[in-house]
């Protein structure tokens, strides 16, 4: 793809994986609009990346459909188009644990960003992209956790990402069926350990969606603790270069893949075992098996 003439919108692009995607898009010559809820991170990302190309930030809360509508108005009013839409913003649910110990506000917060946020982003931009009649791509960031198989102690997050994968698959089929010049893709971040702000996602949790019963952070719930645990157990703990991961997304997009990210082949044996279990009416193995 020639990225030079393309306008890309990246939600959650101020940090972590989204910032890596913005970095990659800029190095390939795209014009990028970064949409993020976190003011300081947004300014810092735009300042630090602006030497690579044309990038600007628009403060956006994807959990608020009016905020997403304002983002689209801003992009279509300023850039006049959106060719590449990355629905990437996401959060955890505020810590794992037994599924029945999660609170309804854990569900509300996680789904408001991961599911309703992705839905609002697609529902707001896609009709305008279709109306433009030009080629385009929509990429939603899911997770192997839920998108491929659940991690049982992350039941809420896994459920949200299963919804993202299912929704984007439906969108991709319908776009293909209607012969639209736009493709939809799902992105599974991976390739190793991801040292991102997801570990501190609660920094953006709205006060009205706090837990009723606050719980102290469990051991192993910071990135350094998690990494140290893996190392102590002799397990692979290599940290992924997020700029490399961003480039990998564009490479897979250029290759015409539906599933983007470095781990698709690694998931295959697990998916076969899941299919066999499902066909026999058994409980399928989790992402941890
Ligand atoms: N880190 C991982 O291990 C991992 C693995 C698989 C999938 N993912 C997914 O990758 C995506 C990016 O996460 P990350 O790991 O880079 O975390 P991150 O916290 O570093 O980045 C997420 C970005 O989204 C923004 N954001 C949060 N709530 C928002 C909202 N309501 N509106 C707009 N922006 C909002 C944050 O400010 C942040 O800049 C998420 O969808 C996440 O679920 C992460």
Overview of this protein structure:
The protein is an alpha/beta fold and 289 residues long. The protein has a single domain (3-279), classed as NAD(P)-binding Rossmann-like Domain (Rossmann fold, 3-Layer(aba) Sandwich), CATH 3.40.50. The protein has 10 helices and 7 strands. The chain has a 7-stranded parallel beta sheet, sandwiched between helices. Helix 1 links the parallel strand 1 (7-11) and strand 2. Helix 1 (16-27) packs across helix 9 (242-254), helix 3 (65-78) packs parallel to helix 5 (116-132) and helix 4 (104-114) packs parallel to helix 7. The mean pLDDT is 96. Bound molecules: nicotinamide-adenine-dinucleotide. Residues 11-12, 14-18, 36-38, 41, 60-63, 88-91, 113, 117, 141, 143, 189, 194, 196-198, 201, 204 line the site of nicotinamide-adenine-dinucleotide.
Tell me the total number of β-strands: 7
Top-tier CATH class: Alpha Beta
**CATH architecture term:** 3-Layer(aba) Sandwich
Contiguous low-pLDDT stretches (5 residues minimum) are: none
* Average of per-residue pLDDT values: 96
In short:
The chain is of the alpha/beta class and 289 residues long. The protein is built from ten helices and seven strands.
